[in-house]
Amino acid sequence: MPLAFHPDFVLGDSPAMRKLLAAMTPTVCSHLDVLIVGETGTGKELIAEMVHASGPTAKGPFVAINCAAIPNELLEAELFGIEARVATGVDPRPGVFVKAHGGSLFLDEIGDMADALQAKLLRALEQREVLPLGGQKPRKVELRVISASNKPIGEFVQQGRFRPDLYYRLRGLQFHVPPLRERAEDVAPLALAFAERAARRYGKRIAGISRPTFDLLLEHLWPGNVRELKSEVERAVLLCPDGAALDGTHFGPVRWQVEQRRLGGGHAFQSGATAPAHDHAPERGETAPFRTLRERFDEVEREALREALNRTGGNQTEAAKLLGITRNGLAMKVKRLGARRGRGTGK
């Protein structure tokens, strides 16, 4: 059975991705549960959706839940459901196991689950039945469970932090999604695809990406992997003049990290330092006063905020989505930087 690719999936041609897809092709048609491991931002959920769409439960729903995003005291109800009258003001609702009946359940960040909940999850997987909070009778479910983690679960098992029986139950099949730094051949097609999508989304004409900029992108280590690349390309498209090509000035944070790594022996991406959005260093011979990195960073942040607010008609919620930040974060930046709609400084 051929693999069914998600519309957002960009098929790379690197040896690492070919190896992954070659391992998936003959196995995803089974009913075995699947464990997907890989660093944050590598696209594990897209792989999970591919497993679902390519397998025997493809006609059923695909239900995803991030186990790390929900407090442990609430996660049990989200997984298994809750009955009426369990607590005052709590309405009965099914859990994600029941919602995914006949399809696939994607448990993201499974490595962060508390010990007590691991035991209940193991029973649900082995018995293929769930007991809602406050319930008296378990409910049978038929589904495929696909889990993922960016944590070293195998090491957690050895350290006693994750149940070995649950680990072996989850990994009927196990796939490792390689980090972007191990699939350099995929950087260019991914960047081009993200640029085309961002240009359509923002109604801009982008004349590709310059060759020196491709070289810059290839030199970056991408600690945030594909998610980071997508974010950087979308920001670059916002900053790029209509009809122009993306160049190094539109990838300020990437260029800064690369330059710092060159100066610091290759570890700048781990430093946690804030990178300027792009570099406006004065040309030789200019008499303008030298500006600090913070001043330059503020200038570019202000420009990006103004651009996003202009494109969304001043809607801060939508502008925050474009910039990849929260609405509260955008509001604080607007207040601090004086960024408003329009082209005048501080307007």
Number of beta-strand segments: 9
CATH topology of the largest domain: Rossmann fold
Which CATH architecture of the largest domain?
A: 3-Layer(aba) Sandwich
Q: Which CATH top level class of the largest domain fits? A: Alpha Beta
Instruction: Compute the separation of the termini in Å.
Output: 57 Å
Question: In oligomeric terms, what are we looking at?
Answer: single chain
CATH homolog superfamily of the largest domain: P-loop containing nucleotide triphosphate hydrolases
Helix/strand/pairing class, anyone?
Answer: alpha/beta
Helical content (DSSP H or I, runs of 4+): 40-55%
Contiguous helical run count = 14
| Overall 3D form | globular
Major β-sheet annotation: 5 strands, parallel
Tell me, rounded to a whole number, the average pLDDT: 84
Tally of discrete structural domains: 3
Strand composition percent: 5-15%
Unreliable spans: 268-274, 277-288, 343-347
Secondary-structure element pattern, one letter each:
HEHEHEEHEHEEEHHEHHHHHHH
Query: Radius of gyration in whole Å, from Cα?
Result: 24 Å
Major sheet: arrangement of strands? 2-5-8-1-9
